[in-house]
Amino acid sequence: MRIMKRKSQKCLPMLLAALVSLVPMACHSQTVGQSPSDTPANTPKIVFESLEHDFGTEQPNKPLSHSFVFKNQGTAALIIEKVKAG
User: Fold this and answer.
1) How much is the pLDDT for 63?
2) What's the half-sphere exposure (Cβ side, CA atoms, 13 Å) at 79?
3) Domain total in the chain
C-alpha cells in the first residue's frame, strides 16, 4: 500500500525553511540605524489626550471632523512620517 502525502505536508518543510530564513532579517531590521544616542534615555514619546472620539448620531452626508491632540513627552524629536486611518 502506498501512502500519498498531501500537498500541505510536502510544502511544510519549505515553509519552515522560509520562516527560519526571515528571522535574522527581522532582528537586523530592528537594529539598523540605531546609534548610541537612540537609547531609551533619548527617545520620542507620543502621548494623546484621547485615543477615540464618538460623533454620536449625525445626518447622512454631513461632513465631520475631529482633531486628536498629542504631545511629545520624550527627549528626542518626534518625527511622524506616515499617518493612516484604521
Assistant:
1) 92
2) 4
3) 1
Q: Would you say 74 and 38 are in contact if contact means Cβ atoms under 8 Å apart?
A: no
The secondary structure of residue 47, as a DSSP letter, is: E
CA distances from 32 to 21, 29, 38 (A): 18, 5, 11
Report how far apart, in Å, the C-alpha atoms of 30 and of each of 4, 33, 51 are: 42, 9, 26
Can you give the residue range of the structural domain that contains 58?
7-72
Instruction: Output DSSP code: residue 36.
Output: G
Convert the pLDDT of each residue in 20-46 to its tens digit. Answer: 555 554 444 444 455 555 557 889 999
User: What is the three-class DSSP state of 40?
Assistant: helix
Place of cell 528626542: 76
CA distance 82 to 86: 13
Q: Where are the alpha helices (DSSP H) in 1-86?
A: 7-31
C-alpha cell at 26: 527581522
